[in-house]
Amino acid sequence: MSIIDAQKARGAGDEKGLTGHVRSSIPIMVPMIVNSIKMANNLALAMLNRGYGYSRQMTPLRQISFTRRDYAVCALAVLLTAVGVYLRFWLRLGVL
Fold first, then answer.
1. Which pTM does this prediction carry?
2. Domain residue spans in the chain?
3. Tens-place pLDDT, residues 10-20
């Protein structure tokens, strides 16, 4: 309805007869076709981004769990943080 109202505001009036009716509906149809093409393009991009239709095979899910390496990295991070706090507040080294 907003396209029809905008065309009427621009002066696209209703003409008499079959050819007049077709001729007066052309300014209304062009923006509708352009909008539908834009919406179809946006929908296609959204479907592509969500992976719709990419593969018919289901992606297997696997459970993620911590390994020894993960625990070692966490322990190293805690140790480095503790050493940094010790150096800063007990030995008064570094800037803050």
1. 0.41
2. 2-49, 67-96
3. 666 666 666 77
